[in-house]
Write a structure and sequence with these properties.
This protein is an alpha/beta fold. The protein has one domain: Rossmann fold. About 30% of the residues lie in helices and about 25% in strands. It is built from 7 helices and 10 strands. It is globular, with a radius of gyration of 18 Å. The protein starts with 11 loop residues before the first strand and ends in a 5-residue tail after the last strand. About 40% of the residues are buried. Bound molecules: adenosine-5'-triphosphate. The site of adenosine-5'-triphosphate has 11 residues, from β1 and α1. Keywords: ATP-binding, Cell inner membrane, Cell membrane, Membrane, Nucleotide-binding, Translocase, Transport. One of its GO terms (cellular component) is membrane protein complex. GO terms for molecular function: ATP binding; ATP hydrolysis activity; transmembrane transporter activity.
Amino acid sequence: MIDNTQQADAYIALNGVKKSYSIGGELISIFSHLDLSIPRGDFVAVMGPSGSGKSTLLNMLAGIDRPDAGALRVGSSRLDQMGEAARSSWRAHHMGIVFQFYNLLPMLTAAENVELPLLLKPLSRKERRIRVDKVLDLVGLAGREKQYPMMMSGGQQQRVGIARAIVSDPGLLLCDEPTGDLDRKSADDILAVLRFLNHELEKTIVMVTHDPQAALFAKRTLHLDKGNFIEEERVA
Ligand SMILES: Nc1ncnc2c1ncn2[C@@H]1O[C@H](COP(=O)(O)OP(=O)(O)OP(=O)(O)O)[C@@H](O)[C@H]1O
C-alpha cells in the first residue's frame, strides 16, 4: 500500500477523499477513503482497469471536479475548500493538462493554439510571443509556429498540446492518456519530452495510461484498484 507518512511535505496530498457519482438514480462509490501523497518533482504513472476512477482522480487534481469529502491539497491550495471561481483561477496558474486527442483548435496555427492560455494574463503581445516561441522550441517544434494542426502528424500535434500545457509555467502537469492515439515511435518521443520536462524543468507529472511501456518513462507506477492505490515494485 502507499506510504502516507510524508503527507505534510507532499506537493499533492489526498486524505480520506470520497467521491461518488449518481448513475441512473443509484449512487456509485468511486473512492470511499483515498489517501495519496506525491512529492514535488515526481513523475507518476497511474494505471488501472477501465472505470476504476483514473480520470476522476485527474479531474479532482485539476480542480475540475471536487471530492465529496476529505482533503485535497496541491502545493498550498486546499482544492476541496475552494469554490468554482477560485478553482478556475487556480487552474490558470498552477497546472496544465495534456489530452489524448490533443484538443487543438483546427482554425488556429500551432503558435496561436499555444498562446491561448496566455490571453487571460496581463502580458504584452511581445511577451506572449517570446513565451510561445520558447515552449515550441522546448518541445522540438521550432520553425513550425505557423502550421495548422491538420498539417501535422499526431506526434507533432501532441507536442503542440504539451507546449500549450506548459506555456503558463505551471508546477503540475496532468496527462490523460497522452500517447493513447500514437504509434510506438511517436509515443516514445512524446514520453521522452515529458521525461525531459520532469528532469530538467522539475515539473511534477501525473500521467494516466493503459500502456505499461509508457509507464516505464515515469519514476513510479501506481495501480488503481477498487478505490485504492498499490505501488508497482520496480526491478532496478
Ligand atoms: N461526471 C460523471 N457523472 C457520472 N458518472 C461518472 C462521471 N464521471 C465518471 N463517472 C463514472 O465513474 C466511474 C469511473 O470513471 P473514470 O472515467 O474516472 O474511470 P477511468 O478509470 O478513467 O476509466 P477509463 O480507463 O475507461 O477512462 C465510471 O463508472 C464512470 O461511469
